[in-house]
Amino acid sequence: MSSDPEPLITVTANGLYCRAGDFYIDPWQPVRTAVITHAHADHLRAGSEGYILARPGLGIARQRLGDDAGITPVEYGVPLTFGPATVSLHPAGHILGSAQVRIEHEGTVWVVSGDYKRQADPTCAAFEVVSCDSFISEATFALPVYRWPTPAQVAEEIFRWWRTNRERGIASVLFCYALGKAQRVLAELRAFTDEPVYLHGAVASLVEVYRSAGVLMLPTRQVGTERKTDYRGALILAPPGAIGSPWMRRFGEHSTGFCSGWMRVRGDRRRRGYDRGFVLSDHADWPALIDTCKATGAKRILLTHGYSDGLSRYLNEQGIAAGALQTHFGGEE
Ligand SMILES: [Zn+2]
Ligand SMILES: [Zn+2]
Predict the structure, then answer these.
(1) Nearest residue to 90 via CA among 192, 29, 80, 306
(2) DSSP letter string, 175-233
(3) Ligand having the closest approach to the CA of 306
(4) Is 211 exposed, middle or buried (0-12, 13-18, 19+ CB in 10 A)?
(5) Mean pLDDT of 198-209
(6) Of 48, 76, 205, 277, which has the fewest CB atoms closer than 10 Å, so is most exposed?
């Protein structure tokens, strides 16, 4: 791998652009060719002519973009030719179908991570370290305070909270992102029970997509589809937007929990007003960000979103050239 005079990826008004291959990665404006890292709303936007993404994410992308969208699914690791550039997708371990984008041109290799994590996740393929000259990484949780407990530990905490609430005769309403987090909770809880869990409609449709993809999860029922359900003692998964909405009234007395990396910090738990916080994130924590940046062997690291300052300072101190890229990607909101 030689050093490159011109960057393979640049930020343009439409998004991250590869001039050599004439395509965009997760563009924020409609373009001709969009290579997609994953289907979260800040990375997959409607309106582009053609989308290229990893095959396990096809069902989710179809649901988000509709049947008419021009989507080309590709297998992980299979090289595609874009003019003089070679492109391949590699698992990012973030959500089902999430991918890093590897681009090779004239002996130089760049990798765009999208969002990623290094923890085991039964709902998607594990992150693969891809060697490169330049690595474009996220930095959502790039502060030393963000360190994740094991998913099994967190699943047990959720299960115990649910049981304690049941003993009190009340419902447990767990807020988690509808795409990725909810399915992961349903998969991790299989270690403790085989009881059904109730779902908000926004979560239920995506759980069905995961189920069709072969992901094993607890049995589920959609809230509101059965008359006169008694929710005392039940566990309900809902997107964060449902908190405080009239939809909540049917549950009667209940305890609320939130599953997110942000719950690692006590002040965040209080401010957001949940009874319980569970530290479960689909993003890399501080040690995982550092390990990953080093493991790629990249001589240059560019950070797209999150607490990029601290991480780029740390990497620069370690002798790895690092800086920030201004993008329109969001973190774990
Ligand atoms: Zn994401
Ligand atoms: Zn993101």
Answers:
(1) 80
(2) E--TTTHHHHHHHHGGGT----EEE-HHHHHHHHHHHHTT-----EEETTSSTT---TT
(3) 2
(4) middle
(5) 97
(6) 205
Half-sphere exposure of 193 (CA within 13 A, CB side): 18
* Element containing residue 196 per DSSP (H, E): none
pLDDT, one tens digit per residue, over 101-142 is 999 999 999 999 999 999 999 999 999 999 999 999 999 999
Q: What separation in Å is there between the alpha carbon of 38 and the centre of ligand 1? A: 7
Contact 217/207 with Cβ under 8 angstroms?
yes
For residue 98, report the phi and psi dihedrals to the nearest 5 degrees.
-70, 145
Distance 178 CA to ligand 1 centre (A): 11
Q: What are phi and psi of 163, to 5 degrees?
A: -65, -40
For residue 226, what pLDDT is reported?
Answer: 77
pLDDT digits over 19-49, tens only? 999 999 999 999 999 999 999 999 999 999 9
Nearest-ligand number for the alpha carbon of 93: 1
CB 190 within 8 A of CB 155: no
Residue 2 reports pLDDT greater than 50 = no
Q: State the sign of the Cα–Cα–Cα–Cα dihedral 262, 264, 266, 267.
A: negative
Ligand 2 centroid to residue 284 C-alpha, Å: 12
pLDDT digits over 278-305, tens only? 999 999 999 999 999 999 999 999 999 8
Ligand nearest to the CA of 42: 2
3-state secondary structure at position 162: helix
254-285: pLDDT as tens digits: 999 999 998 888 777 767 789 999 999 999 99
pTM of the model: 0.95
CA of 98 to the centre of ligand 1 (A): 8
Task: Note whether 272 and 209 are within 8 A (CB).
Answer: no
Query: What percentage of the chain has pLDDT greater than the value 70?
Result: 97
**Cα–ligand 1 centroid distance for 234 (angstroms):** 29
CA atoms within 13 A on the CB side of 143: 10
Q: Are 300 and 318 in contact (CB under 8 A)?
A: no
Distance (Å) from CA 139 to ligand 2 centroid: 10
